[in-house]
Amino acid sequence: MAKENDEERQDRQQIDIHGNPVDDGDDEDDETVLNEKGEEMPWYECKSGANRFELVSLYQKSVRRSDEEVAAYCAWELVRSGHAMKFWERTILFIVEDLRANSEEALLIDYYHRLATERWDPESWEGRITAIHAALTAARARASRESTHANDWFSKVSEEREAAFEEGREPEADFPVTEDELELGGKYDVALDKHTYSGQNRGRDWHHFFVRASRVTEPGEPELSRKWQRRRLEIDSKREFSEEEIKHALKPVDPENRWAEDIVNPNEDLGDFDEEA
């Protein structure tokens, strides 16, 4: 049987014999609230008559599809209907589930959340417009489920590996990094620096770290940082760096060839460089 994914588990709700959701017990009080028709509003509905679970789901989908108007409406409707906490709970989840990593909007959404819940009453006028700001920010951000896809993929690979080992066969899928690649002389040789047991046993020290292991990808260090880096290597009182080594340390890592040029052959002297590698 297929495992329930995170979103399915979040949206799952218990249904009574009449087809209505069972109270999840998160309401703070039992105060009677009326909908737009002047009728008593069930806890699971909004004032417009929409089911709050369905509106929350629509809200999340509108963020993924960058529909600003729908996102703003969902925010307003949920908050004015007394479901502010549900709105903010799901909005905070968007930061890690539906926005691209490094989205600056995540910090802004977190700030709006604190304003709406710590400075103001979440259901006040200020709380409502702050929720709309957050919804618009989320809808305008770069949408991506990359973290969820990564988690799902790595988990499936792990399940396949476990099944393969149990059945005595080779796995049909593997992780991006294999055990032999993370060995001396392997693809990720440079990771085995002085901070690892393997690197220390190989005699790798700060010299290896500064020249090889601390390099950054293109475009490289900012100009001022490069100046400080060079000066630091030139006046190091504990170790000497050749001009060739300094140039290598300052050379940006090629994103098309991130690892190969820093691989050290098991028989190679750490001080020897092969820029053609």
Automatic annotation (TrEMBL):
Per the record, where are the segments of Basic and acidic residues compositional bias?
1-15
Task: Give GO MF terms, alphabetically.
Answer: DNA binding
Q: Which GO terms describe its biological process?
A: DNA replication
Q: Extract the SUPFAM superfamilies matched here.
A: post-AAA+ oligomerization domain-like (SSF48019)
Instruction: Extract the ranges annotated as region (Disordered).
Output: 1-39
Biased region (Acidic residues) positions are 23-33
| Superkingdom assignment | Archaea
* Coiled-coil segments: none
**Protein name in UniProt:** Uncharacterized protein
Write down the species. Halalkaliarchaeum desulfuricum
